[in-house]
Specification:
- Helix 1 (18-36) crosses helix 3, helix 5 (142-159) crosses helix 6 and helix 8 crosses helix 10.
- Helices cover 32% and strands 24% of the residues.
- A hairpin with a 2-residue loop joins strand 2 and strand 3 (52-60).
- It contains eleven helices and 13 strands.
- The radius of gyration is 21 Å and the shape is flat.
- Strands 1-8-9-10 form a four-stranded mixed beta sheet. A four-stranded mixed beta sheet has the order 6-3-2-11. A three-stranded antiparallel beta sheet has the order 7-12-13.
- It has 393 residues and is of the alpha+beta class.
- The protein has helices at residues 18-36, 62-68, 72-83, 106-112, 142-159, 202-216, 252-255, 276-293, 328-336, 345-352, 386-392; strands spanning 6-13, 41-49, 52-60, 86-87, 90-91, 96-103, 126-133, 166-179, 182-195, 227-230, 246-247, 299-306, 315-319.
- The two termini are 22 Å apart.
Length: 393
């Protein structure tokens, strides 16, 4: 049986965190390429530091690289502006943008592209995990879900002009107390947020952010014993890439389950959906969420594994952590059934509608635990497999 009484901590970072800024730029470039060519092959990474953004990676087919050459500079500046950076040493108008994107490797392409009757293979080897747990309405671990929500609500307030004292860069961290396996409160709240007035103290910043935090967390979760750590260093004026360099793909635990579940190690942002690092992780979350939504388990981890150039997954593994209503072997058998989902790279893309420009919005506040959107965004959060899984398992 899983542990019943414990505390668990997860962190999130805001859209203005240097790494998240880079994720945003990489996914915005990906969206622009997929909008032009739904079957685009993209592996795009960004690096940001004081007054500088460098973008590299590979794009195929070749015409797309030529198509994007004059557009990447403006895409990067638009992302920076939208996030809100207008600092002396990092401003959307004056930052230097260097584009080093090149064509896709032919050696990689030959393993991925479909040939004749042969279905396209996976874009790389690797393992991918999906997870779901009935701790929140979104079937996500509570610590990461509410850490995201705090920063998202503060960002919305900043963009609306309600908190003009705050800057784009921020981090949150929640330690959640569990009793009888259920989250019941927070023992500590950590928030470090950039502020634009250098004279503001940590006490001043807490006065601004505390109402938003209290409104975000469930009633009764904050008590007189809850420890608060708001801007614990006392001052946070220099933010973003001017304060700390950023790089695409460095926040993979923030992007997923906050450490509550395993991670295969592959980043998501900047990668087109033929890359199973991204698409198979989305599929694994989709399957795990539907298993829990179907009542087959209170908690579920799904692992998929792939090898470059081969279409079908090498293995499928399910773990219900002692909470299953049916044996894991029956869940695995149901998942293998193509009537549930075709888990080849093309099957995943088709089932979830991934060949669309829906990725920039995933770059901050988590890829999971979000509401499915009308244009296909966050399609992996649907629970439309519930009846099929109940019948198959």
């Amino acid at each position: 049986m899983p542990r019943q009484n414990f505390t668990f901590t997860s962190e999130s970072v805001s859209e203005g965190h240097p790494d998240k800024l880079c994720d945003r730029i990489s996914d915005a470039i990906l969206d622009a390429l997929i909008a032009e060519e739904p079957e685009a092959r993209v592996a795009c990474e960004s690096f940001a530091t004081t007054n500088r953004v460098i973008i590299g990676g590979e794009v195929g087919p070749n015409r797309l690289r030529d198509y994007m050459m004059d557009r990447i500079d403006q895409i990067a500046r638009t992302c920076i502006k939208d996030i809100g950076y207008e600092q002396d040493n990092f401003h959307h108008e004056t930052v230097e943008v260097t584009n080093l994107i090149h064509k896709q490797s032919e050696d990689i392409a030959q393993g991925v592209d479909a040939l004749g009757d042969k279905d396209e293979g996976a874009g790389d080897q690797g393992i991918m995990f999906g997870y779901a747990v009935n701790e929140t309405p979104e079937l996500m671990p509570a610590p990461i879900q509410y850490s995201h929500a705090i920063l998202r609500n503060l960002a919305e307030a900043r963009h609306a002009g309600d908190t003009p004292q705050l800057g784009p860069d921020a981090k949150s961290q929640l330690t959640v107390k569990y009793v009888d396996g259920k989250p019941v409160g927070v023992t500590s709240i950590v928030l470090s947020t950039q502020h634009l007035d250098a004279l503001m103290s940590a006490h001043d910043v807490r006065a601004v952010v505390e109402p938003y935090i209290r409104n975000t967390l469930p009633d009764g979760w904050i008590s007189t014993d809850t420890k608060w750590h708001v801007n614990p260093t006392g001052k946070f004026v220099i933010g973003g890439p001017d304060g700390d360099a950023g790089l695409t793909g460095r926040k993979i635990i923030v992007d997923t389950y906050g450490g509550a579940a395993p991670h295969g190690g592959g980043a998501f942002s900047g990668k087109d959906p033929t890359k199973v690092d991204r698409s198979a992780a989305y599929a694994a979350r989709y399957l795990a969420k539907n298993v829990v939504a179907a009542g087959l388990a209170h908690c579920c981890t799904i692992q998929l594994s792939y090898v470059i150039g081969v279409a079908c997954p090498l293995s499928i593994y399910a773990d219900t952590h002692g909470t299953g209503a049916v044996p894991e072997s029956r869940i695995e058998a149901a998942i293998r059934d193509v009537d549930v989902m075709d888990l080849t790279p093309r099957g995943i893309r088709t089932h979830l509608g991934l060949n669309r420009p829906i990725y920039q919005r995933t770059a901050a506040y988590g890829h999971f635990g979000r509401a499915p959107e009308a244009d296909g965004g966050f399609s992996w959060e649907r629970t439309d497999l519930v009846d099929t899984l109940k019948a198959k398992a």
